[in-house]
Amino acid sequence: MSLIYVDAFSGVSGDMLLGALLDAGLPEKDLRRCLDSLPVTGYELDVLRQEVRKGLRVTRAEVRLADAGHHHRGLSDIVALIEAADLPGPAAAWSKAVFSRLAEAEAKVHGTTPDEVHFHEVGAVDAIVDIVGTCAGLVLLGVERMAASPLPMGSGYVDGSHGRLPVPAPAVVELVRGVPTAECDEPGELTTPTGAAIVVALAEAFGPMPAMVPEAVGYGAGAREGRRRPNVLRVVIGEPLEAAAAGPENDTVWLLEANLDDATGETLGAATGALFQAGALDVWLTPATMKKGRPGVVLACLAEENRRDAVENAIFRETTTFGVRRRRVDRAKLDRRHVPVETRFGTVRIKVGRRAGRVVTALPEYDDCVRLAEERGVAFREVYQAARAAYGGAE
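and the corresponding structure tokens:
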């Protein structure tokens, strides 16, 4: 269970986060493949790896737009863009969660509703690339949890689409309600709406660097030069100390349950999909006999600590339940990793499970097989069997 610590000692923005992930080892070609799947054009992503900011070698990820204009989009427009992209794991759900937080903050500032918000700067192409790229990058690096330092705000003024505004910008103040901030003698806008939204939406804790075993470190640079300190964000990726001690074959998650006796099959199907979108690890339905002999089901799912609230909210939103039971449960699990293999139909990932270092099971990824079967016009079982044959136990 990899943990990332976002050390925002000089603030945080979307491009700083993206640069830091690249600096920490995010493969650029994999990131570009994810971004290329977005139905968004009119930009280029430049990755500069040899910049130096006040003695620190950093990576700068800069989105260059084909024109200087801003693309105004509503929340539903951006959600549609994200859903149309081919993103790994929970990257789409995380990206939508970030934009939802932005919409809520902007709506509060402008006295409207999230659905009526037009994002202006935060809805521009560069912010979409920064947010989706960061969320996809976290998944590609195997990050499952985020913690962050208190966020420095900065001082002065910033020019926006509504004119000159004080720093921190009003949307940033709304985003950091209930989140620790930090003093910083560096002038200017240190924490941007995009950067604040990513960290606030995804971080489960704010404070000093947690006990962990660091495995990778990355430094991402912002657009401007700092006056008193480098305009740089640092990320540290590794294993939480308790997870490192327990090993990859054990962890603790939340079990969430709700009794339902008035839900249609269509409602249950939609709820299951929504829970996975919210970050549930697994979802299942168990037939049950409710009070007064009514037939019903028990909806149950597993969620990690940092996704528990999102999954719980999805249960209340998607079903008619008045209560959710929750308890922490310990799991024994296989140490899992993906191994790509080449078949005559294309590349298929093999999910390999180990226990005590020994391979216990190796199965082709269902989604890869379905996609290739549709693309090649062949039966699912042909792709599945070809992948198993190509794996052959070798990595």
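(Above: one complete record from the training split.) The mean pLDDT is 87.
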